[in-house]
């Protein structure tokens, strides 16, 4: 591939375990949603490692003063779940980022053209340039949905250097588009699958993550 893109596939046994549970077609809806919550948690943990802004301070232990490092509350953190399927990752992400602001974006894919259309956009008109934004999109397949959201975020002032994407599985078509347009961006995914089928689904993938998470 001629483009540059920073894609991270964490080598963590819990991520591998929950990915296997999510992939299994025999996994019940409730357990599938649990798997997605756990993947959201562990992938967000990895994504936030060198992304959160910290501040040095001092705290009092029961015995003495002690220097300490804490998350800087003055730097805004935004989480953008792409509806519907992105909601399945949100609970896990929020357990690690409890002070984040959540901005919902709802997209629907045309099953004939595979192009997305937006039915809900709760992004602010302008982001503070220091804001860190985490996008939750379980499936990076054709790239249409993620590209639409990234374009909206950068148009509203988000610095691509401060953007992170958490995805359960990704495929080359989406990664190619992101890499050509946002080489600074970092993606954290449990696995990169090889191809899409003629319906634009990742193979082997997860199936329809939204339907499986919400039992529809």
From TrEMBL:
Provide a Gene Ontology MF annotation, just one.
uracil phosphoribosyltransferase activity
State its Enzyme Commission number(s). 2.4.2.9
Enzyme class name: transferase
Q: Which reaction does it catalyse?
A: UMP + diphosphate = 5-phospho-alpha-D-ribose 1-diphosphate + uracil
Q: Name one GO cellular component term.
A: cytoplasm
Pathway involvement of the protein, from the record: Pyrimidine metabolism; UMP biosynthesis via salvage pathway; UMP from uracil: step 1/1
Give the record's keywords alphabetically: Allosteric enzyme, Glycosyltransferase, GTP-binding, Nucleotide-binding, Transferase
| UniProt xrefs under Pfam families | UPRTase
Would you kindly state one Gene Ontology biological process term found in this protein's UniProt entry? uracil salvage
Which residues does the UniProt record annotate as the domain Phosphoribosyltransferase? 9-216
Q: Which domain of life is it from?
A: Bacteria
Family annotation (InterPro entries):
PRTase-like, PRTase_dom, UPRT, UPRTase/APRTase
Q: Which cofactor does it need?
A: Mg(2+)
Q: Does the keyword Transferase apply?
A: yes
Cell division in keyword set: no
Q: Which Gene3D superfamilies match?
A: 3.40.50.2020
Q: What does this protein do?
A: Catalyzes the conversion of uracil and 5-phospho-alpha-D-ribose 1-diphosphate (PRPP) to UMP and diphosphate.
Q: Which family does it belong to?
A: Belongs to the UPRTase family.
Q: What is this protein called?
A: Uracil phosphoribosyltransferase
């Amino acid at each position: 591939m001629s483009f540059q893109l920073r894609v991270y596939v964490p080598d963590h046994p819990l991520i591998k375990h929950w990915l296997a549970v999510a992939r299994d077609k025999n996994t019940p809806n409730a357990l599938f949603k649990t798997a997605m919550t756990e993947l959201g948690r562990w992938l967000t943990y990895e994504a936030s490692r060198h992304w959160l802004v910290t501040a040095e301070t001092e705290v009092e232990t029961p015995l003495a003063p002690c220097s300490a490092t804490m998350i800087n509350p003055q730097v805004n953190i935004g989480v953008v779940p792409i509806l519907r399927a992105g909601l399945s990752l949100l609970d896990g992400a929020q357990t690690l980022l409890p002070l984040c602001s959540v901005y919902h974006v709802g997209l629907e894919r045309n099953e004939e053209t595979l192009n997305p259309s937006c039915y809900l956009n709760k992004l602010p008109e302008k982001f503070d340039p220091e804001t860190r934004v985490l996008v939750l999109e379980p499936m990076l397949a054709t790239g249409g949905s993620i590209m639409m959201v990234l374009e909206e975020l950068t148009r509203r002032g988000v610095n691509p250097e401060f953007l992170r994407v958490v995805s359960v599985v990704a495929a080359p078509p989406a990664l190619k588009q992101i890499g050509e347009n946002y080489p600074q961006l970092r993606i954290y995914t449990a696995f990169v699958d090889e191809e899409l089928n003629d319906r634009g689904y990742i193979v082997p993938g997860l199936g329809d993550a939204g339907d499986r998470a919400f039992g529809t």
